[in-house]
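Folding Task

Wanted — backbone structure
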Amino acid sequence: MEHFDVVVVGAGLSGVGAGYRLQTECPERSYVILEARSAIGGTWDLFRYPGVRSDSDMFTLGYPFRPWRAPKSIADGDTIRDYIRDTATRYGIDRKIRFRTRVVGADWSSADARWTVTVDQEAEDGTVERRTLTCGFLYSCAGYYDYESGYTPDFPGIGDFQGTVVHPQFWPEDLDYAGKRVVIVGSGATAVTLVPALARDAEHVTMLQRSPTWISPVPGRDKVADRLRAVLPARAAHRIIRAKNIAFTIGVYQFCRRRPEAARRLLTKLATRFLKDEQLVREHFTPSYNPWEQRLCAAPDADFFRAIRGGKAEVVTDHIEEFTPEGIRLKSGKVLEADVIVTATGLRLLAFGGIAPRVDGVEVPLSEQFVWRGAMVTGIPNFAVCIGYTNASWTLRGDLTSRLVCKILNHMATRGHPAVVPVPDGTLRERPLLDLSSGYIQRSIQEFPRAGHRSPWRVRQNYILDAATTMRTDLDKTLHPAKREAAKANVDAKAGARS
């Protein structure tokens, strides 16, 4: 049976970044990356719908060790996918990836201080072989989306519709929407991306929303970044641009959360500036929730607003009564006729890529655990998970987490600990791991581990504070050598968790 010091699950943005950190900061450790799909890229290889792009700038979504050189700050999916693949090739990380290898089981043995990882490995001919390998440390970089299924409500009469129904997560390569009437159900980031992309070729595009979403125009290119890149070496320019954008993003988030009324006025003013219609903005672009209670949708170069003002697209705020052969009948009685209906109704969350860790033969109830430093989980020795920020680029915390994992591995080697597990000192009060009111989060967050009310159990949404403290963490204080009793025991603090 093969053995590795570290097994990384997922070859997307996080997994490739983890590979770089492991081979540069723990060069003596062996590692392998297990990828269920047949390509590098993760989310950026999965999503192929028209217009798919980043919703944060690439100077912070990109790797700190690999300067972003493409012209656009908000980049399209193909460019991001190429960037991840090129990074993996440049640093030899691609040679560590095993494709079509899906993790279906992970069992920790306290007696052996190692994981037994069970995988289904698919051959080129489609046959699947179940195999096992072992490792000392398991690191899940599979994100928290369910790659196998998106979320679609149970729409009455959907089977009666005579046109084409498609979910953005599984966009058909041969879908022809040119000259056709398209209705997009939903108003999140995916819908806001699809509207201007489809409007270029469709006869007309309608975005149907139950309630408005906050949408902010942002520059597609960073003019300051362009000037800096023209006069400075690539790495120096990248560091400065990255710092600038981090500070700006955190500043906007803090402004929205601390001064919600002022943020509402600003976003309303921006929407009115591009749409030139105050009534339209009041009716369709003024949400009941405050900015950043849900993720703020970005419209590069105001493309979403321009599509609406140009007449190729519109927004309708109403509820669905039923699907009909011709389209969708709304509660108001209006019928939206369509040839293509896109159900941009959200994603499903899936904790740790579907891995259900077992410790000494007992499955660990994830919803009863706490997350330490946004990385390790109570009750599960030698296990970490990569979870990015909700209010900033995923990679910011993703890279911090990978560096922290390397620090932990080196700490274990220095102390002679074969296994460690985080254990709280005192009672913790529960906080949600992802603190947003968005529907896709609220539907599934109860299945995830919890955050705590205080550091280092609090999952902050502030990269500057995390960057200043994460790598200075006193590992001896909270990470305990994992014994059989410690591994099986749940957190003593759990008794007061719901108080």
